[in-house]
Amino acid sequence: MSTIETTAPPERAGAGAPAVAVTGLDKTFTTSDGPTQALKGIDLEVAAGEFVSLIGPSGCGKSTLLRIIADLERPTTGEVRVFGTSAPQARLDQAYGIAFQQAGLLGWRTVAANVELPLELHGVGRAARRARSTELLELVGLSDFAARFPDQLSGGMQQRVAIARALAERPRLLLMDEPFGALDEMTRERMQTELARISAETGAAVVFVTHSISEAAFLSDRVVVMSPRPGRITTTVTTGLGPVGERTDALREDPRFFEAVTAVREGLHAGSAGVAGTGGGSGGTGAAT
Amino acid sequence: MNVIARRILPPVLLGIVVLAAWQILVTALAIPQIVLPSPAAILAETLAYIPVLFSAALVTGWNALVGLVVGSLLGIGFALVAASIRVFDELTTPLVAALAVIPIVALAPVLYTMYGADVQSARQAVAGISVFVPVFLNTLRGLRQTRPVHRDLMRAYAATRWQAMRTVTLPTARPFIFTGLRIASSLSVIAALVAEYFGGPRGGLGTFITASVAGSDYARAWSYVLASIVLGLLFYLAALAVETLAVRHRPA
């Protein structure tokens, strides 16, 4: 069941399909206080190679949406397709790489062994694993730390190891759940620039959950703005800042960047204002049942 | 050099001072042997009886070792089952709680009648049962320490149950398992030794302690106690050594 092709061929069945296609998705959690609707009427499409951020206040369900795409949670209703296959199948096929807010490295393994973990689980030989981890550690600038243990690395370095691990099987989709959320601002900006470069170099589509407006604007082709209770998409902002791979620190002082930040901020505020104003009106999108 | 000076020398010095004070006190106050024998007398008995002490320690040590190995294997095994099968966990938790409050050595006389009074099995069983509880509880606790982010990762990688167990769950539990084993190591010696107080075949340290006391040979009884302490210490150090070897590759 879980024997997986480890080097994703550039073209395969469903290559023409979007990286992610979510239609009419609802998610209701059953809590002790009764059911809580976490997501309502979500429609989202992410093209192959596209960088899309999900932004919104806490509790808007952006992480839940990402976890549903990753098949770590099941939707209540609605459909999720990843490269044209169902989310569970995509998970079994290892169609995506994933990184969380916590680096989640295994403390008893070296940095290299952590990067090799998914390859090892999927039966890749020792030599091929070592070659791949060497390559990836070079990509994230940690070649000198291959033999170290995670405890010996700073938070930012650990997160870079986690990103290298997510890229190990050359996924065409990266799912990232606030990967820089626990880092200081300086490290964070450096990591963003690096991620922009890495995502362009690998050509993978990225779904990136964040609650930082500037982070979303800097990295994304499109920023999907969500609002809470129930979590839904209020606006989508196209940043129009050119190819993600060409975004450098100079962009942070570019007026076009400020425009994008403003657009995202206004989208967010309009969304949270809309909770009171159009609370009843949003019922129309919940027709997926 | 520095380590020896700072960490080993002070306790050794303290020990020598205490022993000297003990010796002076016993001689100066002419304390009778029945109350407290002098260190010199105990040392003399120990040196004179080294072969006997050694063979007695071997008997008790073997019982403790059998109990330790069997009890630990059962403890780890049951914990693995309890961690993966919920119903089993709910069934065993009250049983283990009950087992934990029973003074296990009190079972020794009962076990002697079960196994027959001339075999060591009863003592090994007592050691095994007393080892089982701390190993089981610590292992189970360790198996439940898996971090959610690691569980998510294993699911994202479509890892099998066995793979998740081997790569994440067991390594996470490892320090807890070794804590259990460390507690169990000295416990097994105590249990095997005290079980000898309740009868059964002669030959172990426990039987010699009771026999020496019954014969008013107090210095000799103390020399057996000394041998018991050494035996317990050996078990503890062995457990510690195994732990250090096993977790060597992990920085603290």
UniProtKB/TrEMBL annotation, chain A:
Protein name: ABC transporter ATP-binding protein
Annotated PANTHER family: ABC TRANSPORTER ATP-BINDING PROTEIN, TAURINE IMPORT ATP-BINDING PROTEIN-RELATED
Superkingdom as given in the UniProt entry: Bacteria
Keywords, sorted A to Z: ATP-binding, Nucleotide-binding, Transport
Record-linked Pfam families: ABC_tran
Domain ABC transporter span(s) in chain numbering: 20-253
Taxonomic lineage from the root: Bacteria, Bacillati, Actinomycetota, Actinomycetes, Micrococcales
An MF annotation (GO) of this entry: ATP binding
UniProtKB/TrEMBL annotation, chain B:
PROSITE patterns per the UniProt record, alphabetical: ABC_TM1
Domain ABC transmembrane type-1 span(s) in chain numbering: 53-246
Keywords: Cell membrane, Membrane, Transmembrane, Transmembrane helix, Transport
Gene3D superfamilies linked to this entry: MetI-like
Entry membrane topology: Multi-pass membrane protein
Keyword Repeat on entry: no
Main localization, broad class: membrane
Record bears the keyword Metal-binding: no
Transmembrane segments: 12-36, 56-83, 95-115, 175-195, 221-242
Location(s), subcellular: Cell membrane
Superkingdom of the source species: Bacteria
InterPro entries: MetI-like, MetI-like_sf
Family: Belongs to the binding-protein-dependent transport system permease family.
UniProt cross-references to PANTHER family, sorted A to Z: ABC TRANSPORTER PERMEASE PROTEIN, ALKANE SULFONATE ABC TRANSPORTER-RELATED, MEMBRANE SUBUNIT
Designated name of the protein: ABC transporter permease subunit
